[in-house]
Amino acid sequence: MVTESIALPSLPELIDGLPNFCGWESLVDEVVKSDRPVFLPTTNLKVENINACFAIALHMQQPMIPAGNDGSLISNLQYMFEHPQEGDNHNAEPFAHCYSRMADMIIELVEGGKNPRVMLDYSGNLLWGLRQMGRGDILENLKRITCDRTYQPYVEWLGTMWSHAVVPSTPIPDIKLHIRAWQHHFAAIFGWEALARVKGFSPPEMHLPNHPDTLFEFVKALLDCGYRWLMVQEHSVETLTGQPLQYKHLPHQLVARNSQGETLSITALIKTQGSDTKLVGQMQPYYEAKTLSKQELAGVQIPPIVTQIGDGENGGVMMNEFPSAFMQAWQEVGQNGIVGATGTEYLELIESIGCKSDDFPTCQAVGQHYIWQKVQSANLDTVDEAIAQLKQENPNFHVDGASWTNNLSWVKGYENVLTPMNELSALFHKTVDPALSQQTSYRKALLYNLLLQTSCFRYWGQGAWTDYAREIYRRGEKALTDNF
After folding, report:
1. How far apart, in whole angstroms, are the C-alpha atoms of residue 202 and residue 167?
2. Range with lowest mean pLDDT among 71-80, 97-106, 308-317
3. Does the N-terminal or the C-terminal CB of the chain have fewer CB atoms within 10 Å?
4. Whole-angstrom Cα Rg for the chain
5. Which of 364, 381, 400 is at the close of a domain?
6. Which tens digit of pLDDT belongs to each residue from 309-322?
């Protein structure tokens, strides 16, 4: 693909012991902006033979924590191996196996004449941590299904935020830094051609911003970084008139309008239902797809798609039940009727018969209908005024974003993490010149800035995890004041 016309240097995966996730931004930009079809030239699916599709994605994440013998940054997975008596740390080796096993399953199925599909979402934290702890065997296994053209058409990698930061509470200037850092790091591990195929995006925790300006900047960053679509949780979006989605098995256009009235949009595939690993672990999307049939969109009959994502390693279902359910499903699924597809493959297939993104039904982030209605009806000058009035009228209204679950917040009660997180980000952007991105001092400062935004330091509660965040802040502040 990309190397046919551009001779690009291979990137080192590590530089001075740090992940290579910055310094070659112009080359990354050149590669990801390619608009060539990714799956269409190699797919063995014919859209006219398909009644319905299903797509499953596996999400993998382990945070980096300052918990090595000398306080060094290590993967939480390494900490689990070194402290097997704590909590569920005895699962360290099963977790490591889960990070690798998809390669074995895909290869076995393809060699057996089957037609599997899977999408993979691995955080930058995890990829770096695996290399750092000496588990290059896992990365090499993944390279087989990523780079070998025998297996690559069956697998799609999804981009994500490098340090598993939830977008709504990430400082806006850092959103693009996370997105670009992941692309950069991925290219260093798997190569430029593999990066050129990454066109879908998986937001950590399926967390979608619903503040108009944050959502706009998020969509702008995705488009700037060459992404064609993202996955969204169905309950995190609404129609432009504020209703639940009626056609959740069809692709949508996510509309992002900021407080200045500027509008952008990006294709969204709708992840249905909540985040229950049983849905993926027991291959529910396949069985749901069997109940569906073609629908008309813009005068074209297209197959609907059931899209689902789950943790690839977490819980007994994923560890123990998923492999057999996955292998069994592909004994039944072929190239006709009900088929598996990846997100980009599906979108390219329906586009090939004339169904374009402009034809998709529209949606917006949940709660935005109230905002725009309030701005118009009250003749307000700013979106923030509308939000303030809505919060007064309804204490449950918020613009903290929406994710796979409504019973957790990554904001409330975590001021002791969010405040230093915002302070370190502000100091980083005030102090550091982006033109220095190939220097180790820049890379180290960027590392601490991104690591502090890892959602685990809030999701896993007060105590040791917020202490980790405090230590990362201290080191980040020192790196900025000592080196710049």
Report:
1. 11
2. 308-317
3. C
4. 22
5. 364
6. 999 988 788 888 99
Domain limits for position 435:
411-484
Q: Are 473 and 183 in contact (CB under 8 A)?
A: no
Return phi, psi of residue 31, to 5°.
-75, -45
Same domain, yes or no: 350 and 217 = yes
Find how far residue 308's CA is from the centre of its chain.
Answer: 13
- Count CB neighbours of 14 within 10 A: 13
Q: To the nearest whole percent, how much of the chain has pLDDT over 90?
A: 82
For the residues of 330-378, what is the DSSP string, one character each? HHH--SSEEEE--HHHHHHHHHTTT--GGGSPEEEETTHHHHHHHHHHT
* Domain count along the chain: 2
CA distance 290 to 52: 7
What is the C-alpha separation between 444 and 451, in angstroms, rounded?
11
Domain boundary among 309, 330, 364: 364
Angle, CA of 161, 164 and 169, to the nearest 5°? 85
The enclosing domain of 269 has a CATH number of 3.20.110.20
Q: How far apart are CA 5 and CA 193, in angstroms?
A: 11
- Classify residue 323: in a domain, yes or no: yes
Q: How far apart are the first and last CA of the chain?
A: 40
